[in-house]
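Why should sequence recovery work at all? Because a backbone constrains its sequence more than one might expect. Tight turns favour small or flexible residues, buried strands favour hydrophobic ones, and helices have their own preferences. The token representation captures these environments compactly. In the example below, the structure is given first.
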């Protein structure tokens, strides 16, 4: 064998060795890459599991009231999942977080074409107003909770807010809470509490409240029947010129005795003059009981009173005190602190007689009276069942 053959054989052997080494190296590389791929896959799976566990933990914390986590999850979902973001913001908002409340409003306002979201935005706007505003804002928010507008109905929370406004002597709230305690929707009605809130508003010179508490005393709803207190509250409302109150004040004395009928005639005459249709027939009926001569005198007393009322020149209690003196009625005037129904208060009588000659001199000062913008309807009560206003 010559050297050329030896070289060829050697070359072939070398080539075979290289191929074998390359094959084993390639196999080794594949194993390394496969192992690396498996490790990366395991890492990704472990990372995903860790993230899932972390999110699960965050969700749990958020669901159990952790506000920071709720805000984190909401912000995380805001760009990709509107409903989820709103859900977490609302949870934090329900825990009185101001950032969440404003975020709910912002999200809802971004889709104002949706009636449900628009209602939610309005509700949370009332929450912000109640936190920053006065009792009227608390009343509006409380009503929203009662009605379930923009939020799940929450009677307890709604009543608490309205009561807070009422405690601040906000008369619309006091009237509302009084209505609530006798409402059919109230699972725990309480006529006595209704009377107490009506009394508190009445003490603030609210005419509607004065009529309400007067009728409650007259009919014994939530309080013991007390004609003296009923008469006072209806007459003090009637003094302000309220036609309904004048009619009811007249009914208190009608068909009782000579003195009662005389007082009733004055109030019924005023009510009829102010447009109460039912007062006309009742006035004529009472007039028949007292007689023609008495009617002439009573009319001469009532006419100047009507003129004074029309001009707003009647001082509070002027007519009441004069009637007490003229007809020797037992006087009743509630104490300034008489907020609990049934308390006895100090009474007093003053000398300020009404006659045909001095009726025009009864009073000279105008007192400011607060008016109710939206009068309540009391047509269900006994006293006005036959009245046409």
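From this structural description, the recovered sequence reads:
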């Amino acid at each position: 064998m010559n050297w050329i053959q030896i070289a060829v054989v050697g070359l072939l052997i070398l080539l075979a060795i290289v191929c074998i080494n390359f094959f084993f190296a390639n196999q080794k590389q594949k194993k390394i890459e496969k192992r690396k791929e498996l490790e990366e896959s395991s890492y990704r799976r472990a990372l995903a599991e860790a993230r899932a566990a972390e999110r699960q933990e965050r969700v749990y914390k958020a669901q159990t009231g952790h506000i920071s986590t709720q805000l984190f999850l909401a912000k995380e979902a805001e760009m990709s999942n509107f409903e989820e973001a709103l859900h977490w913001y609302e949870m934090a908002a329900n825990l009185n977080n101001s950032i969440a409340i404003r975020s709910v409003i912002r999200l809802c306002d971004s889709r104002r074409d949706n009636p449900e979201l628009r209602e939610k935005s309005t509700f949370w706007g009332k929450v912000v107003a109640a936190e920053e505003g006065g009792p009227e804002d608390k009343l509006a928010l409380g009503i929203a909770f009662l009605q379930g507008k923009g939020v799940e109905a929450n009677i307890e929370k709604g009543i608490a807010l309205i009561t807070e406004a009422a405690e601040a002597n906000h008369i619309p709230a006091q009237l509302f809470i009084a209505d609530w305690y006798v409402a059919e929707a109230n699972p725990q009605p309480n006529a006595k509490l209704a009377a107490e809130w009506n009394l508190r508003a009445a003490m603030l010179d609210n005419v509607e409240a004065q009529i309400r508490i007067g009728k409650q005393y007259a009919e014994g709803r939530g309080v013991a029947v007390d004609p003296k207190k009923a008469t006072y509250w209806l007459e003090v409302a009637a003094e302000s010129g309220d036609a309904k109150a004048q009619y009811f004040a007249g009914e208190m004395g009608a068909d009782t005795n000579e003195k009662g009928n005389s007082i009733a005639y004055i109030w019924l005459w005023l009510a009829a003059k102010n447009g109460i249709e039912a007062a006309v027939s009742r006035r004529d009926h009472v007039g028949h009981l007292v007689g023609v001569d008495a009617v002439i005198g009573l009319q001469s007393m009532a006419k100047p009173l009507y003129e004074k009322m029309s001009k707003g020149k009647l001082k509070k209690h002027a007519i009441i005190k004069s009637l007490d003196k003229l007809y020797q009625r037992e006087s009743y005037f509630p104490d300034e602190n008489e907020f609990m129904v049934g308390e006895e208060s100090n009474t007093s009588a003053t000398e300020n007689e009404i006659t045909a000659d001095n009726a025009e001199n009864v009073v000279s000062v105008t007192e400011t009276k607060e008016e109710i913008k939206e009068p309540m309807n009391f047509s269900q009560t006994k006293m006005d069942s036959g009245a046409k206003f």
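A few observations help interpret the result. The chain is about 65% helix and 0% strand.
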